[in-house]
Amino acid sequence: ETGVTQTPRHLVMGMTNKKSLKCEQHLGHNAMYWYKQSAKKPLELMFVYSLEERVENNSVPSRFSPECPNSSHLFLHLHTLQPEDSALYLCASSQGLAGNLWDEQYFGPGTRLTVT
Amino acid sequence: DAKTTQPTSMDCAEGRAANLPCNHSTISGNEYVYWYRQIHSQGPQYIIHGLKNNETNEMASLIITEDRKSSTLILPHATLRDTAVYYCIVRVRWRDDKIIFGKGTRLHILP
């Protein structure tokens, strides 16, 4: 149904682990986003990439490290996370034309992360 | 900081029209109204957007008042699959203006 896929869909990791979340968009978009959604909280923007360049880092702790090797792929590398980082991590993409970075975002299904 | 006000929750009977209100009394002339929804445990889904004219697509209709201080999203024949949280967002289009999600309206479609 969606042109944005995320893997894995569920992840359980310990606080000392290192893991990565992957997002892939098949829509030919130029902009990609990471959001965090904690229980009963609004969506929080984490990072924005436009044409593989990071254009926004929304005061995210350094234990979250994004990577955008090309306009179709976005990763979120995780290390030494805390239990409060448990949340649904959502990836989105948009066409990202000049001056219209945020228009009509298409979201993936998310990765449900649990930090133990 | 969301610029919109929406009811926390609403109920609608299946098959009836669901009318979801949104207040955006401080909207400026170049801000568009966007609607997204999020079905439980899924990513948000774009629904529709508009500036001042009413808009309709295959999913919904958007009615914006003449003074643009409020709008209504209409799902013409609600089904159980429309149960979701609906977000009303205002932003300037054609500029790098963020999409900021507020708390939205939790819509329950009743069988």
Itemize the secondary structure elements and their pairings.
The complex is a heterodimer of chains A (116) and B (111).
Chain A: E1 4-7, E2 10-13, E3 18-25, E4 31-37, E5 44-50, E6 53-57, E7 64-70, E8 73-79, E9 87-94, E10 106-107, E11 111-115
Parallel strand pairs in A: 2-11
Antiparallel strand pairs in A: 1-3, 3-8, 4-5, 4-9, 5-6, 7-8, 9-10, 9-11
Chain B: E1 9-13, E2 18-23, E3 31-38, E4 45-50, E5 55-56, E6 61-64, E7 70-75, E8 84-92, E9 105-110
Parallel strand pairs in B: 1-9
Antiparallel strand pairs in B: 2-7, 3-4, 3-8, 5-6, 6-7, 8-9
Order of helices and strands of chain A: EEEEEEEEEEE
Shape of chain A: globular
* Terminal CA distance of chain B: 35 Å
Q: Give a quick account of the main beta sheet of chain A: strands, pairing sense, barrel closure.
A: 7 strands, mixed
**Integer-rounded radius of gyration of chain A:** 13 Å
Q: Write down the oligomeric state.
A: heterodimer
What is the number of strand segments of chain A? 11
How would a textbook summarize the main sheet of chain B? 5 strands, mixed
Query: Could you give the order of strands across the largest sheet of chain B?
Result: 1-9-8-3-4
Q: Can you give the mean pLDDT of chain A? A: 89
Structural class of chain A: mainly beta
**Helical stretch tally of chain A:** 0
Strand content of chain A: over 45%
Low-confidence parts of chain B, pLDDT < 50 over ≥5 residues? none
DSSP strand (E) fraction of chain B? Answer: over 45%
Helical amount among residues of chain B, as a percent range?
under 10%
Low-confidence stretches of chain A: none
Properties at a glance:
heterodimer; A: 116 residues; mainly beta; seven-stranded mixed beta sheet; four-stranded antiparallel beta sheet; B: 111 residues; 9 strands; 0% helix
Question: How would you describe what is shown here?
Answer:
The complex is a heterodimer of chains A (116) and B (111). Chain A is an all-beta fold and 116 residues long. Chain A has no helices and eleven strands. In chain A, strands 2, 4, 5, 6, 9, 10 and 11 form a seven-stranded mixed beta sheet that branches. The radius of gyration of chain A is 13 Å and the shape is globular. Chain A starts with a strand and ends with a strand. The mean pLDDT of chain A is 89. With 111 residues, chain B is mainly beta. Helix content of chain B is 0%, strand content 47%. The mean pLDDT of chain B is 91. Classes of the chains: A mainly beta (116), B mainly beta (111). The interface between A and B is medium-sized, with 23 and 22 residues.
